[in-house]
Every structure is written in structure tokens, then in C-alpha cells.
Amino acid sequence: MNNPVYGRPRLVMVGNGMAGMRAVEELLAMAPGHYDITVFGDEPHPNYNRILLSPVLAREMAFEDTILNDRAWYHAHGITLHAGQAVTRIDRARRLVHAADGTVERYDRLLLALGSTPYVPAISGAQLDGVMTYRTIEDVRAMQALPAGARAVVIGGGLLGLEAAYGLLTQGAKVTVVHRNPWLLDRQMDRVGADLLQRSLIARGLCLCLGAETEAITGDGHVQGLRLKDGRTLDADLVVFAVGIRPRTALARAAGLHCDRGIVVDDTLQTFDPRIYAVGECVQHRGLTYGLVAPLFEQAKVAANHLAQYGRLRYTGSLASTKLKVTGVGLFSAGDFTGGAGCEEVSLLDAAGGVYKKVVIRDHKLAGILLYGDTALGPWLFQLLRTGQDVSALRDHLLFGETTGDVRHGGGRAIDHMPEAAEICGCNGINKGTIVHAIRTRGLFTVDDVRRCTKASASCGSCTGLVEQILASTLGGLYEATARKRSLCACTDLTHDEIRDAIVTRKLLSVRAVFATLEWKAAGGCPTCRPAVNYYVRCAWPAEAIDDPQARLVNERVHANIQKDATYSVIPRLYGGVTTPAELKRIAEVAERYQVPMVKITGGQRIDLLGVKKQDLPAIWADLGMPSGHAYGKALRTCKSCVGTEFCRFGTQDSTHLAITLEKRLERMWSPHKVKLAASGCPRNCAESTIKDFGVIGVDSGWEIYVGGNGGMKLRAGDLLSKVASEDEVVELAEAFMQLYRKEAYYLERTAPWIERVGLDHIKAMTVENSESRKQLAAELRHALSHEEDPWAAALSGHITIHAQPLRVAEMTI
Amino acid sequence: MSVPENTVWKEVATLADIPALGGRVVATEGGEIALLRNERDEVYALDNRCPHKGGPLAEGTVSGDTVYCPLHNWRIDLKHGQARDPDVGCVRTWPVRLEGERVFVRLPE
């Protein structure tokens, strides 16, 4: 489709708004220089962030701060911008776009991002001066020009209407909201929640006319008031319609493109004309139109992918939640929160505290969420809604959160009250003010954006929920969290699952092969995808995969744990935490010989030699003569044990023997994340088996097996997987469980979140109930482990190299 | 990059010494230097100390024009030694010359 005159194909975009420009930005990132790009926009400005108009109206922000792409940006990217020029006609036969001023542009691909028009009902007086809608910066300026003390009426008590009303209130106007339904925000709230909101709004000075319909707007040239159908009249100097939006389709209809309520597109955002794509509010996809920003951005990404001729992504619709801030009050709603026949409701109302929480449950699954006043649980509940998980076991704490007492990481309700200086990301020392500032000044919309620009939640990730809340609270208005498909990292658009499928079905045997076959955007990848892909390749093809040491991070490449001063720690394997005097002597001698600065017992009952220089590692390994404890790896770490029947007077089972056996059978196992085991000999559980990935507790009749426990970043008690009679059964179940985890969990996903994601029932079915699949999984793991060598021995015998010695400068110079 | 005064080209490695997408440490009298090689077989030399907390860049992840520090994932530009946004800092870089397989770095006499 190359243009014979210009060489490059020509992309014309009609519509210079957020959805369209996002598509262009995605396209530039994906396939720079692929097109000559021309953009037409009705408004005389560069692309600005419409979401932030409400803060501009409330004079909390300047318009300049909402500009997403200034003119210099268009220039720098070689994009021709026709701002303030309406497109009047599309000539599909000749592939031409005509603008009002006579400009004609030819296209090879056309992208329509026409947006929507505020709906104005056909009532008498709607054309008077002073009657307006709320969509553009011009509308904001008109509202700001209103003198203090003026009377304003907003028709429509939805999201946009309330934001307009709040903005006008801050201008010093006397504001009345006229709403057709008996309560405000009836698309987002039930009556109980709306009562709380209305009370709070009235306290701020807003007047409400509910259950009221406008019959006519009155005035002579300029608006003077309005008359309601029930006969009441209101005085008004300004009337704002905020009763909904309609997709702009006129241009597309006139060009003969198939339109219904919006321009009809398929899952690739293509219209019925294969050369024409459409994104944003003007689009109708699978019968639905979208008005909030996050789904539009998803569409933009997919459209860009197809315009770049990658042809890979599909847009399958967005499950949307509304998460917004109206006049300083948090609201989160999603799904069907009204309930009704066949549904159960769980709710909590604190009228004095202004908090209302409600979830609707259908068939043991979440069907709807409504949170008012305290929206901290929004992301967690939305996740439950999205995944369709059975919530029967969670019923009693659905309204209180995932864990109790975890104020810091659970988010609490405090985000709005938190001072600017409050630390959000403990790893990187980022406070709330820094994040809010970055969101405002740099036009950030997603957690990933915030992560990239501020580093908040970029390390351990436990503050992600807080960052989401700050996003919602800062963007307010139209911010929406959606169920987004998560790509592995910025180097690819593919998800973990898609990459693993490709590795298996296309037999990709190395990181290099994966990057080349799946068209990685950065040829070298990044520290997120390289280790993940290297693991996936080796997990899928244990005998044939080519391990890439440079795809491993430092610890797994050097086979020791790097410390803050670039020294390393050395932890040899002590099976089950059992050692001998001779072994202890040898360790002590090594520590003295190499002047190891610290010798410490670890939390997993092992001995740690800290402060070792890289140059000394091979010699220390040789002198120890012990296998690696894998304490540095995403691998089997330790099996902690208690004393058990051999010495303990309470012991009911030989836990040390089992611990040693388990560790020997599973050692050298690489996994999505670290794996910790424990074996306790009686229900006193001294080895803490219930906070381990796989923990065993001896009882009189055998062993209880717990999985998915975690004692680290996020405390979680393990789930009882099964109870078995013999040590052999424990081992086989351990092998099967580990192999299932290795095959199914995402890289860097511990067993705890994995189990929460896939459900314990699934794991039971695969490893307990179906003995064939258990044996199959166990055999797969044994096969994989048969190809693993002890890494320290491998380094000493030259099978792998850790580059322990530095290079030296040659004497010769030139 | 201006050539520092009183420096000469010194041979420090062969290309094969440096793993692709990885690095090696060169011990010099003035301290450790990280030799880093990207997917295009370009070689860069930087002081082996991340401007953040001194992490050994030679152990980092090399990709394209940057190396990610192994300690806290700071992203350092290979050409200029500048930390990538949002981090701020700079590490000294050294001129590198490849002659076939031989790697030279311009170091103090």
C-alpha cells in the first residue's frame, strides 16, 4: 500500500482528542516512521486532557497543564496538524478527506476518532444564549465568566452534571441541579448511597430538584429561568445540559459507513471499510459504546497494532468500573449493583460517618459493587468480580478487605486524608505529593505510567492499590479502572499466557528465539522479560532449552546473593536443616580462611556466609564441598523442620527425615518464584508449616498438607490441600504440586497469589482427586530435575562460567 | 565525548571475553571499570559504580543503549552515563575502540 509519490503510506486521522491521539502515540511507539500522519481537529488547540477540565473549572489547575501533546510535539514527530478545521466530507472512492476550508488530504488508512456530542433535548428555549453543554475548554471558560452570585442550573445529575455543578459552586454561583430520577447518579448508585451523597452536597450549598423534568427554558434572547413539568419555576442566568452524550457519526454516515448508535467496528477496530478504522466515543463495538477513558485507550492500542500491520491484538470489550471523586467524596461502582431476583446483597451503612458499602452476589460470585465514602476495597472487589471467583469463603469479610490490620498495604480509607508528605512507596521513598504532581503535570493515566515516571510501586509492588487510589482521586471525574489485558512488560504486547503458549506450540528453545519469533519491540528485552522468558523456555523444554546466563539476573548468574556493597552471600545446602560436627568445622574453617565478615543463621535454618568477594566464590565452593543452597534463586530454597519423633517428646511423625527427603527430591528445582517448604512433626507446628509454599504437619494418622502459605510481604495462612498417610504420598504430592505451579504460575508469582488466582479447587482436582494427573505431573518434574546440575559443581567443572576474576589491563598500549 | 588529557588506548579484553547483553569488570589502577556489550556488539566502558548506591554495573542487564543496575534497576545510558528519567545522576564513561576482536579503552597513562 506504499504511496508511489511519497514512498510512505499516508494515515489521516479525523479527531484530535484523547482516544485518537493515544492511538497515534501507540503507533509511533510500535512502528515509528511507518506512516506520513495528518491530523484534523475541530477544536483550535493541540490535544488536551478532557478529564482534567473539572479541576480547571474549579481553578485547581491551569488549562496549559492539561495539554497532552503541544504543537512542538506534532512538529517533532513529523505530524501535520490541522487544528480548528472541521472535516466536512470523506470520499471513500478516491480516498480523500475534505475540510471546511477547502483542504483536501489523501489517505491510505483513515482513523476516525470523532468523539461524541453532548445531547441536548428538543425543548423550547434550548437555543437561548446562556444555555450550554459541558465538554470543551470553551465551555469551561464560559462558565468561569459567570459573575459571582449568579444563578446557574445544571440539568442532569449524573457524573458530568455534578462535576459541572461543583465547579460552578466554586465560582461563587448559586447552583441548582435538576435531575429526572428520584436520586442523583442513578447509574452509579442506589438510593441508600445517593442519600448520603445528597446530604453531603446540600451541606455544601448545592440545591437539588429531584424527580423533576424540564418543560421549557424561558427568556428573551438570553436565558432567564426554566419551568418544570410539575409547574415549579427556577431563575437562571446560565443553564448547563449534562444529560448524556451521543456518538458523533454524521461524517461516517454521510460517507456510507455502517453506523448504528455509533460507528460499527469489529474486534480490530476496523469499520466496514477495510481502509477505515475508528476508536473512541464514536465507536460501537459488540453493541456497546464507551464514554470513559480507559476503554478508549485499550481500543487505541488495538487499532494502532493493526495500523502498524502487526495484526495481533483483539479488542474484546471492556468490563468497566466507575471510580471517581465527586466533590471530594469517593465513589466506586461496577457491575449490577442493584441486585434483584436471584441475588443476595451484603451491605454496611454508616450514615453518620458517610460510608456505605454494598456487594451483590449471584451464584456465589460477585455481580456488583457499590462503595461510597470509602473506596479502598474497589480494586480488590473488582478483581473478584472480573475473575468470577467463588466468594462463598470470603463472605464474612468481603466488606472489610482482603486482610485485616494491614492498613499500610491494604490502602485503608485514608487516601484522601493522607498528607502530601505521606510515604506511599516504601521501597523507593515516593510520597503522595510527588505522585499527584506527576499525574497532573505529565498527563498520567495508568499505574504503569506512574511507575515509569515516579518509580512508585515499581519495586515490590505492594503499594499498587494505593497508587490506583491516588490515580482515581487525582483524575477524579472520568477515571475508570478497567479489566486490562496485562502484557508481560513494555517490550511486548503479549501476556504471560500467550508467550508460554507460543513457546510450547512453536517449540521455542531460547530467549533469543522467543524475542525474534514474537517480534519483541526491544531487541535486547529488559530485566523483567529476560528472566521470565528464560524460565518459561526451560520449564517447557527441560531437556532441549538453551539456558541464557545473560537472561538471568545477577544472583542466578553468579549463583550467590549480591549484597548492597557488591559482595555476595554464600549459603550451602543443609538438607532439612540438619548438619554434622565435621560439616560445621569445614564451614568454620572456610569462613576463617576467606575472612568472611559475618556468619549468620538464616530464617530457613541454614548458615549464611556474608560479605564474600566475587573472586573468592569458586574457591569457597570448592573448599566447602557442599551443594548450592539456591538461597539466591527463584528456586527451591529450604525445607525447614522441627525435631520430630526422633528426639521430641511430643512428636508424632519423623519430620526431620521427611524434610531431608523432600529437600533431596526437589533440590535444583527452578520455579516462577522462590519456594519454601516446612515439615512439622506434630500439630504444635514448630516449623511454621502453615506459612510456607508447601508445608506438612504430622498428625497421629499421617500428614496434613498445606499450600500457598506466606509469611513475608503479605501474610497468608496456607490452605489444606490434603491429608495423606505415608511419606511417599507426601513426596509425590509435593512433586505434582510443584510441577503444576511451575507450569501455571506467572514468573515472579508466589504460590499464594497463584492459588488465589486459579483457585484451590483446580489444584486439588489436578493433584489430589485425579491420581493420573498427579503421577503425570510428578513424572514431569522428575524429568525436569534430571537435567539440572548443582550450579556450584557446574561452575567448578567449567560447565558454566561466572566470570569470577576481573579482566586486567594489558601492559602494551598504543 | 571529549578525550581526557594524559590518557592512552590500552587493550583490556577481546570481544569474546564480554558476554553479549552482559558485562565484565576491568581492574585498573584508578578503580573498576565495567565493560558492557549490547545486542549490536557495541562495547561501552563506564565506572563500575551506579550513581545511585554504587551497584556494580558490570553485573547489570544490558539492552540497547542502556544498562539496568543490578541493585535497584536504575537505568543508565551507555553512551553518556546519565541515569534515565525519573532517576538523576551520572557515571563517568570511558572512550572505547574496537579493532577486530580487540577491545581498547582510553585510560590514564
Describe what this molecule looks like in 3D.
The complex is a heterodimer of chains A (814) and B (109). Chain A is globular. Among the domains of chain A are: 168 residues, FAD/NAD(P)-binding domain; 113 residues, FAD/NAD(P)-binding domain (3-Layer(bba) Sandwich); 58 residues, BFD-like [2Fe-2S]-binding domain (Arc Repressor Mutant, subunit A, Orthogonal Bundle); 57 residues, no CATH class; 157 residues, Sulfite Reductase Hemoprotein, domain 1 (2-Layer Sandwich), CATH 3.30.413.10. In chain A, strand 1, helix 1 and strand 2 form a beta-alpha-beta unit. By secondary structure, chain A is of the alpha/beta class. In chain A, the strands form 11 sheets. Chain A has a 5-stranded parallel beta sheet. Chain A has 25 helices and 39 strands. The mean pLDDT of chain B is 92. In chain B, a hairpin with a 2-residue loop joins strand 9 and strand 10. Chain B is globular, with a radius of gyration of 13 Å. Chain B has a single domain, classed as Rieske [2Fe-2S] iron-sulphur domain (Rieske Iron-sulfur Protein), CATH 2.102.10.10. With 109 residues, chain B is mainly β. At the A-B interface, helix 12, helix 17 and strand 39 of A face strand 1, strand 2 and strand 5 of B. Strand 39 of chain A pairs parallel with strand 2 of chain B.
- CATH homologous superfamily of chain B? Rieske [2Fe-2S] iron-sulphur domain
Strand content of chain B: 35-45%
According to CATH, the fold-level topology of chain B is: Rieske Iron-sulfur Protein
CATH class of the domain at 10-116 and 247-307 in chain A: Alpha Beta
Structural class of chain A: alpha/beta
In which order are the strands of the major sheet of chain A placed? 5-2-1-9-21
Helix tally of chain A? 25
- Strand tally of chain A: 39
Question: What value does the average pLDDT of chain A take?
Answer: 89
Helix content of chain A: 25-40%
Low-confidence stretches of chain A: 1-5, 403-413
| CA-based shape of chain B | globular
Structural class of chain B: mainly beta
In CATH terms, what is the architecture of the domain at 10-116 and 247-307 in chain A?
3-Layer(bba) Sandwich
Number of helices of chain B: 0
Main sheet characteristics of chain A: 5 strands, parallel
Rg of chain A, rounded, reads 31 Å
